[in-house]
Amino acid sequence: MSTEESKVQKICNCLYILTNDIKIAEPVDASRLNENIKDAFTHELRRNVHRTFQKIENYSDVKTFVTEYIQPCFGDKCTTCDYLKFLQLCLVLLRLLKIALTEESELGSKKSDASKLPIPKALLNMSQKNVLQKSLQFAVALGILPNLLRGIGIPLSKRLKHAIILERFTSESTLYQKHIQIAVCLDTLIGCLECEAMQSTILSCHGTDILAALLQLCHAPIKKIEKTEGSSTEPSQTDNSNHSEAQIINMMLAHRKYFAPHLETFLKQICPSLLMWELLLFQGIPIKIDESEAAIAKSPLWLRKICNQMLTDMILQNQGIADLVQVVLDKAYDADIRTGKVDSSRIEAVARLITYNPVRHISVGDYIQRLSKQVFQLLHLKGSQMDGLLKYVASCIVLQFCERDIKSAEQHFLVKLLKPLWSCVRQPTNSQVNVVVKEIELTTCIEDLHQIFAFSSNLLSRKYIKLLFPFSHCLCNMFFFLLRGKSFLKSKVKNLINAILRNATDEEALSLLHAVSFSNNKHCGVYITKVSFVNGEEGGIVAVQKVEEDFPDEIVRYHAILDLLSELQNKNLNRSYILLVLKEFCTFHLESKDNVMDPENIKAGILFNALLQELSEWNVDIGEALMSNISEVIDILMTLLESICNCRTDATFYEKTLWVVLMILNSILESDDQLTPADWSSLKKCLPSLKKLQKSDIDSDLKEIIFSIIIHIATHGAACKNGIEIVKDFVTNFPDHASVALKPSEQSLLDLVEKFDRECNLSAQSIKSKPPSCIASSNESCSKASSSSVKRTQSEKGVPKHNTNSSKKSSDSAKISKLDESASKKKDSPYMLAMRDARTSLVHIKGNGLISLVNLLKEKDEETLQNKKEVLKTLRKSLEDEDSHVYIPAIQALSILGAIEPDFVLPYVLNQYQASEEKHIVLKLGEVLLKICNTLGDSLSKYKDILLHAYLVGTKRDDPQIRSSSLSNLGQACMCLKFQISNHWLQEILNSVLTFLKTDPDLEVRRCAVMVIYLLLKGLDKDVLTGLDNEMKTIYSQL
């Protein structure tokens, strides 16, 4: 039993016949290609029109509606039916389909109200949708596209293979005829948009064409269209309808008034991202096209203006920037923005498009002001990869606006960005309120500035980071405070400072370093910080009222400055900074010598001492820096030496200043091969002051060093490099220079040079190994020990004292020399030399000795391992030293020894780890144990019980850092032991860790507890369910 077809199905059947089986055969004769294709295409259209009318005869309800608009034609030999008859029939059937679908929808709504049950709205099945889509293609291809003005929409040549055929259909049409075709077709499609079943298909397939037609009808010039902008000129009176020009213009104005509301409605219906893309295309924004294709015609000026205005309005709407980024990256570049696989140059292109949008209907200042809210919202996004891309776009927009209009950008962007830093460099107005800048404000400020000026790869970030230079003192103080604790802002502030210094000139960078290093910074070109910083509750910092510290942690400050300079790798800046420090030190010494007991001078002296100590340990060739400014450095040294000679020997900083001068002189003399005759002449000006100091009541070590420097300068370095024979020649050839060194009443210069030849190396080593801080803290007993150590070293080397009155037989001398040589070889083995250096009190010599022990242990030196007890005691004692140059190699050596001799070392270290009460010793021993566990790996099971016991005991300590250290070691041991942890130990470890996770007040301890669980699971890897089958539920619930 056959069911009656619905009205919708009948119409779809007619449309199917009308649009189906239309093929364009390729002719054999290429010369008649277009003519043959046009004739064939016209014949296909005419045939389908006749077939469709025949089909309509079977549907009375369809026939009634169609015949009201079109006269049916059935003749097979008819030649009057052309593409216009085909277009007209297609449009009528589309209107009828819309009416039928609307009726079905209304009928379904009435039934739903009556039965109170939801009934689906009228919908099209897949075959009906395909018919509708094909019908729309013919309607648009015949009624809209060929009649658009040149440069509007996407040309037919870009969309259809035989586009020229459709263009020839309308090439002979008048302006009136083309206008009527577009208007009728557009009115039909807009009417069909009211039907929900047809709306999605029309918008997705032909939204662009409808928008182009609406823009032409509503905004194109009516009186005249230039040939460069359109295919038609003034309205012609020679059309078939014999309409006058005035009548045509009135008709166009009436259509404009009619379609204007439809344009507004259509803009609301179309997807915003799709609309943005179409507006970009209509403006002629270049996209990726095939070079082999013909170029797209330039858009008319009126179209570019209206599209620009519409696009600007859309960008200024909420989420406008995000929508534009989405559509451009998706459609223009085929970028995977969800995973962040987007070239930064494409992001910058989108930002440039937003910034330099012509914006003809509003001023640049108003545009920036209205856009600023969106930009700040994008800067503060956090989460997905897309959010990261939008933040990068926002940062590029800020930089692009700085390039376009710096005043407007400063007013609407920079003032808000820099407001927290302004508050930090201004004197607080209300002294009663302790908090000057809140934590969230400072955090937001630093993150935004880092995103714009440090993280961005945009070249403009390097140009405009100069805007942050006045606030660099505040950023540096912020960074120095952050170094004392743990904060997520530390790396971002450091990156900002690095970027500022890297893009500043050497003079600007030096002025900033001067400001953060010294207090006399009134003319440095930066704002001085007027606040102090404290830790915030959420990992950031808070700016509070200024708190003066008597002795701030300047070691951290100066160490950080030198680290920043090292990362910059700017040799010229390094040299300038070293010279700046020397100048400031000289100025301070001259200004404070008359009032040495002033508290401010004492404080400044301590700070200089700290800075000079850091300089002495800096991994930069200070000698090279000094040699680049040798004449200026020598002048500073001469001034300091003269000032020291005029001071009392018991004056404050007397010896420390002298040590600094001698250290600098020694650095210069180490590069004596670069000294010119003029430099040697300048250095000899220091000899009178040095001779005077040698005779004064000073430390014996200082006298030895001064003596060696005098000989070095007097002999132009010959005494150190060329031995006694060259010195004899020097004395013979240059008696004037030699006589300068010492008075005639003293021993002959030759005797003193021979003595210097034996001692110069030791003296040079001594000056290197004693920084000013060591001298400041040394006492008389230390000086005596150092002096006796020098004499003992000389005797061990077997160097005989020079005696002009005594002589030995040559044979005896040879025997003694051989014995001394063999004894020296026996005593001065690498192990003995390393142990002797490791036991000295001088920091640098001790550090070098421990490094030598590390190398010997790595090589598994036989003598070193035979004396492992002595080595172990020495290393344990070295852990007590607070200098990193000492305890770091001690930790390394102890861990290597533990890996070689675990049975001997591990019990001792574990016993010390549990017994020691000093926190810094426990932490260092914990690091030793961690390294030993990593090295032993799977062989750690032999020491499982003593290790786990020691770590669990360590977790019971009161100090949170010790608890954290014990938990870290426990986690590492669990990862190495894997299945070798028995049920007893496993249960105890989990109970302890989960208890810390729930109850410990310290955040770091809780984090370490989570890390223990992570390392335990990591060690078990795929077999985690086998090892922790019974405990997995507990772990999961607690985490």
TrEMBL record:
<dbReference type="InterPro" id="IPR019451">
    <property type="entry name" value="Rtp1_C1"/>
</dbReference>
<dbReference type="InterPro" id="IPR016024">
    <property type="entry name" value="ARM-type_fold"/>
</dbReference>
<comment type="similarity">
    <text>Belongs to the Tango6 family.</text>
</comment>
<feature type="domain" description="RNA polymerase II assembly factor Rtp1 C-terminal">
    <location>
        <begin position="833"/>
        <end position="938"/>
    </location>
</feature>
<dbReference type="Pfam" id="PF23565">
    <property type="entry name" value="ARM_TANGO6"/>
</dbReference>
<dbReference type="InterPro" id="IPR057407">
    <property type="entry name" value="HEAT_TANGO6"/>
</dbReference>
<dbReference type="Pfam" id="PF25267">
    <property type="entry name" value="TANGO6_N"/>
</dbReference>
<dbReference type="InterPro" id="IPR039600">
    <property type="entry name" value="TANGO6/Rtp1"/>
</dbReference>
<feature type="compositionally biased region" description="Low complexity">
    <location>
        <begin position="777"/>
        <end position="789"/>
    </location>
</feature>
<dbReference type="InterPro" id="IPR057347">
    <property type="entry name" value="TANGO6_N"/>
</dbReference>
<protein>
    <submittedName>
        <fullName>Transport and Golgi organization protein 6</fullName>
    </submittedName>
</protein>
<dbReference type="GO" id="GO:0009306">
    <property type="term" value="P:protein secretion"/>
</dbReference>
<feature type="domain" description="TANGO6 N-terminal">
    <location>
        <begin position="6"/>
        <end position="313"/>
    </location>
</feature>
<dbReference type="Pfam" id="PF10363">
    <property type="entry name" value="RTP1_C1"/>
</dbReference>
<dbReference type="InterPro" id="IPR011989">
    <property type="entry name" value="ARM-like"/>
</dbReference>
<feature type="compositionally biased region" description="Basic and acidic residues">
    <location>
        <begin position="809"/>
        <end position="823"/>
    </location>
</feature>
<feature type="region of interest" description="Disordered">
    <location>
        <begin position="768"/>
        <end position="823"/>
    </location>
</feature>
<feature type="domain" description="TANGO6 HEAT repeat">
    <location>
        <begin position="316"/>
        <end position="569"/>
    </location>
</feature>
